[in-house]
Design brief:
single chain, 211 residues, alpha/beta, 48% helix, Carbonic_anhydrase_sf, Carbonic anhydrase family protein, Carbonic_anhydrase
């Protein structure tokens, strides 16, 4: 499988881009890999890059987008931050990926057993550890937690049902933020030039479920 060129990228629709990722995860789960010469792809992409998708995922070491979607060099823009939420810099990266570099798909990829989301649920414990920047990060999840937690429900990462609800809602919240905070990406989606979708990676099975 060769690296994408400007010509091949131009023929990819948002629907086809999504299908590429679905097929790639199917290969990954089946312990199969597309036949790629990575050094050849290095050579092919030395003058430029034409990725077909932008994937926002967590920094979790088990969730590398290139691996779990079986993609090669130059295929996807990979944006990673603990808890896969968006901010202005990440939105700027997405706008570059789609409006400048021509990607056709934006994926917000959450995952099961997310440590950042666990930290959000266990914020009281984390705050006592003296890590100011980490505290700032996990504060991003408080509004979602306060919305989805039920009366009398235990706020703890040990509450696995709450943790998974938070994971799902966090992905949906990130998608909402993309549409609300980036007029560029919203316009591209409205024009049918890109899709913005959510997904969840299961760290136990390797399967990606599309939301």
């Amino acid at each position: 499988m060769k690296a994408h060129t400007s010509e091949t990228q131009s023929t990819i629709t948002p629907e086809k881009a999504l299908e590429f990722l679905k097929e790639g995860n199917h290969r990954f789960v089946g312990n199969l890999k597309a036949n790629r010469d990575l050094l050849e792809q290095v050579n092919a992409t030395r003058e430029g890059q034409w990725p077909f998708a932008v994937v926002l995922s967590c920094i979790d070491s088990r969730t590398s987008a290139e691996l779990i979607f079986d993609q090669g060099l130059g295929d996807v823009f990979s944006i990673r931050i603990a808890g896969n939420f968006v901010n202005q810099d990440i939105l700027g990266s997405m706008e570059f990926g789609c409006n400048v570099a021509g990607s056709k798909l934006v994926v917000v990829l959450g995952h099961t057993k997310c440590g950042a989301l666990k930290g959000g649920l266990d914020a009281a414990k984390i705050e006592g550890m003296g890590m100011d920047n980490l505290n700032h990060l996990i504060d991003h999840f408080n509004p979602i937690i306060n919305t989805i937690i039920e009366d009398g429900e235990e706020r703890s990462s040990a509450n696995l049902a709450l943790l998974e609800r938070l994971n799902q809602h966090n992905v949906k919240n990130a998608i909402d933020d993309i549409r609300k905070q980036s007029s560029t990406l919203k316009r591209l989606e409205d024009e049918g030039k890109i899709k913005i979708v959510g997904a969840n990676y299961d760290v136990e099975t390797g399967v990606v479920t599309w939301l």
